[in-house]
C-alpha cells in the first residue's frame, strides 16, 4: 500500500468551480506539503504544514487554501478555479529527523477548462 | 533563499553511453542536496541525497553525484545508461536545518536512444 495517497488522481473542472484535492499519509510524519508541477518549471511550493495548528504559505499560495484536518490528512482547495491552475499537483511528507527529505504521493492531474 | 539551475532541459544519449546531468545551486547558507527521478506518469522518487560527509554519493541503480562546494554544483552521473533510465530528473536544495519545503530545479528530461 502506498504511504502517501492522493485523491482524485485526475480531475477536469470548469472555471469558477470550487475543488478540493486530498492527501493522506500513513508514514506518521508531522510535516506535509503541497506542490504544483508545470512543464518546464519544475515543482513549486504552494503551502506546507508542520502540524494541525501550523500552516504556512509557500512560493505560490495565491488562489489556494489548505486545511490540515489531522496529522495524516492535508487538503488543498481552489476556491474558484481558473485555467492557469491547470497542473499536476503533488502532496509530500517529511519527518522531523529526515533532513527535509520529502516523500511524494502519485500526484493529481487537474485540468481547468 | 535558495535557487537551483538545471541548464539542460533535455539530454539525449545512446544506450550504454555515459551521461552527466548538471545542477548548480545558489544559497547563502549550508544546504542539503537531492536528486529526484520522475518516471512517466508517476510521482517523484528520491534517487540520492547529500547531507554531510563524503562528497560523492551513490544510488542503488548506478547513479552517483558529487557535491562541489566551491563550484556550488551537484552533478548527476551514470557511466552506462539503460532504456529504463528514461525519465525526468530534478535537482533540489534545502537549507541545512530547514523544513520549509525543497527548492527544485526545472528538471532535465533524459532521453535514451537505442
Walk me through this protein's architecture.
- The complex is a heterodimer of chains A (113) and B (114).
- In chain A, a hairpin with a 3-residue loop joins strand 4 (31-38) and strand 5 (42-51).
- The mean pLDDT of chain A is 94.
- Chain A has strands at residues 4-7, 10-13, 19-25, 31-38, 42-51, 54-57, 65-70, 73-78, 87-94, 103-104, 108-112.
- Chain A has 113 residues and is mostly beta strands.
- The N and C termini of chain A lie far apart (33 Å).
- Chain B has 114 residues and is mainly β.
- Chain B is globular, with a radius of gyration of 14 Å.
- The chains are: A mainly beta (113), B mainly beta (114).
- At the A-B interface, strand 4, strand 5, strand 9 and strand 10 of A face strand 5, strand 6 and strand 11 of B.
Radius of gyration of chain B: 14 Å
Number of helices of chain A: 0
The SSE order of chain A reads EEEEEEEEEEE
- The proportion of residues forming helix of chain A, as a percent range, comes to under 10%
Quaternary structure classification: heterodimer
Strand proportion of chain B, as a percent range, falls in over 45%
Structural class of chain A: mainly beta
| Spatial separation of the terminal alpha carbons of chain A | 33 Å
Most extensive contact? A-B, 26 and 25 residues
Write the layout of secondary structure elements.
The complex is a heterodimer of chains A (113) and B (114).
Chain A: E1 4-7, E2 10-13, E3 19-25, E4 31-38, E5 42-51, E6 54-57, E7 65-70, E8 73-78, E9 87-94, E10 103-104, E11 108-112
Parallel strand pairs in A: 2-11
Antiparallel strand pairs in A: 1-3, 3-8, 4-5, 4-9, 5-6, 7-8, 9-10, 9-11
Chain B: E1 3-5, E2 10-14, E3 19-21, E4 24-26, E5 31-38, E6 44-50, E7 56-58, E8 64-68, E9 73-78, E10 87-95, E11 103-104, E12 108-113
Parallel strand pairs in B: 2-12
Antiparallel strand pairs in B: 1-4, 3-9, 5-6, 5-10, 7-8, 8-9, 10-11, 10-12
